[in-house]
Amino acid sequence: MEKLREVGKPVTRVDAYDKVTGRAMFADDLCPKPCLEAKVLHSTIGNGVVKSIDASEAREVPGVVGVYTCFDVPDTPYPVAGHPWYADTRSGKRDVMDRKLLDARVRIYGDNIAAVVAEDSVACDRALAKIKVEYEEWPVVYDPVESLKGTGHPVQDRCPDNLVAHTCAVTSEEDLARNGYKSVDEALNDPSYHHFRAHLETAEQSQVHIETCVSYCYMESDKIVCVSSTQIPHIVRRVIGQALGIPWGDVRVVKPYIGGGFGTKQDVHFEPLNAWLCTQIGGRCVKLEVSREELFYATSGRQPKTFDVEASVGDDMRLRARSILAYSNTGGYVHHGHALVLNSVNSFRWLYHTNEVASRSEAYTVYTNGPHTGAMRAYGVPEGNWAAECLMGDIAHDMGWDGVEFRMKNAIREGFVDEFTPGGVIRAHTCALPECVEKGRRYIGWDDLKARYAQEEGPVRHGVGVSLFVYKTAVAPFALETATAALTLNQDGSVQLQMGATEIGQGADTVFCQMAAEAIGIDTEDVHITSFQDTDVTPYDSGAYASRQTYVSGTAVKKTGETLRRKILEYARFLHPDAQGELDLVDHAIVDVVGNKVCALPELALEAYYNMEHNDQLHAHETIQVHTNAIAVGCTFAEVTVDMPLGKVTVDRIINVQDNGRLINPKLVEQQVHGGMAQSIGFGLYEELQVDPKTGRVLNPTLLDYKMPTMMDVPDLEAQFVETDDPTGPYGNKAVGETPIISPAAAIRDAILDATGVKFYQEPMTPQRLFEGFKREGLI
């Protein structure tokens, strides 16, 4: 790969000093004090209708400014998912509008039915306690398969059968016939091959970011200003406009520093309600902050899913056919809907396909009376990876094959094109998976550990496991991918970068500065960026999701930087018409064709602002649309200790090795991988939002009861990389942010299987489930 000047350097984060010193200002820090506060009354049933609400006593509580019920708000449905509004203006594809500010139709336990605005939170709490609600209660259905049978009261009127969507991608009849089969089932059950099947489950996982969801709203010059902790400020602006039935230009959204999101804040939760409440009390400032408990049940976590998987495989280790049937529980509202489980089954299909002659990927997304669900890091792929890798682990174990060798005989290779994706956009232009696996295998000492642990007996055993992953970058061709960047040359020769793309802790602002510096030909430290997005000022960008920003928004940065560079050189030619040959920008100076210095960049910048003959404040503003995609790949190797009587798994060593294309900032990528690996350990062993299926009520909405890995549960995390130069990325880069959470959970499961011979199909593999599994197999 060509060595670049600024891209590829482990430069310090541009926001590092502010964050470590506490100088960084988050939404609550910026909120004027004192201000009015708002709190929401949540339903205490999981399905039914609010018949009446008596708020008379609540309105008499000292300090209460207003009480508003589901009968007071506009009857206007709106969407909440953080997507571009139009997937295609001609087809009219749009996010589903199934939410209201407050709603008398209760679909989930904890639905929003009333709100209080008061001088302080104590008055809010006292008023909420005095509101009397009369319900008509209906039976709750939490299981998606049961929900599809009909409930008598559809969760959403638009779907009488509670089916959000159903898709099925199957090998064509022509391709099946070419290999001697009439159906996928015939290929799966061919007696010449070994047949495997399994039923798997993944739980709802919460993002549990440090900063809860918080916003404050006020009116200024008849415009609603909403300051929000969000990943998608421009989409929040649009949704507030839709929900309130006002022009989108009458709304201004500001996103300050944000204390994590991981997908929760890719939904528009309470900002529209907060904005509406603000309009009801004369435009005064109202803060609405979600409590930690509300964060668990009143915002969206990872969709729970079930998978039925099958495979047939020959004695030569080559897969013959595979099938996956998935059911996804979206809860009472569609949020991100079917896109999540599509990612699950697509990644299942892409990861292992090389030798297949038949495949089927079928998925259902279903409304139930379960809690909110939506986007969470890697957007459905960890669940699909769990299904794929549990199946592969079972096959390797039962057949007595080496798990690495078996996987690599069937894994995705460079040149892969998904036949079911429009235009063949999903394509592996680069794929260093073999190099990644070899690197991880050497690090963990795969062959030595497999031999050492093979004959272990007793209650405490050790094992080593592996899993692979695949992940696409951004959302093209399924949805619009567009971004804009703006660059201005300052008087001192530095540049100002404005982005609608959002820094949410991942380091995006830093890599944008590096990419801009690379394109212009200056140092990263001379690029200034503000981590606040303001929809009245910053150019449009969809926001932080789908590992899209460095790939999509970075393309806008590169194009804008190249435009500004061209304008700088054109102005240099005006100032120095006699300069020899083509001019260049090198080390803060304009040089001629033989390398002689023509002028310094700061000198040119000053002239551009104040030249009496030809003043030109040099500026570039470019919009791009990305139609391509890129596939990132990698693997996890894990070594574990299993204490069977205690049902305890200790992760002793774990490594992720990834091909993320060119690394824009290797240090930031390493930090991202460490965080994702820790979250995946939680996904595999600890984290589960527990729901009472009879009521739909979340049973563990506290940090005491929702179990997460702590620093004592996470070992030293090792991250390694194999860099490739992907031709579609602005600087050869592809997805990074979400890839590290995908495969560690399945690698841990594979290591437990290696240690004990016991197969687990439900995640998380909690001590209770582990104990029951070991007892079932006679090991305890």
Automatic annotation (TrEMBL):
Its EC number is 1.17.1.4. InterPro entries: Ald_Oxase/Xan_DH_a/b (IPR000674), Ald_Oxase/Xan_DH_a/b_sf (IPR036856), Ald_Oxase/xanthine_DH-like (IPR016208), AldOxase/xan_DH_MoCoBD1 (IPR008274), AldOxase/xan_DH_MoCoBD2 (IPR046867), AldOxase/xan_DH_Mopterin-bd_sf (IPR037165), XdhA_XDHase (IPR050028). Gene3D superfamilies: Aldehyde oxidase/xanthine dehydrogenase, a/b hammerhead, Aldehyde oxidase/xanthine dehydrogenase, molybdopterin binding domain. Residues 21-139 form the Aldehyde oxidase/xanthine dehydrogenase a/b hammerhead domain. One of its GO terms (molecular function) is xanthine dehydrogenase activity. GO terms for cellular component: xanthine dehydrogenase complex. SMART domains: Ald_Xan_dh_C. This is Xanthine dehydrogenase molybdenum-binding subunit XdhA. It comes from Thermophilibacter immobilis. The lineage of its organism: Bacteria, Bacillati, Actinomycetota, Coriobacteriia, Coriobacteriales. The gene is xdhA.
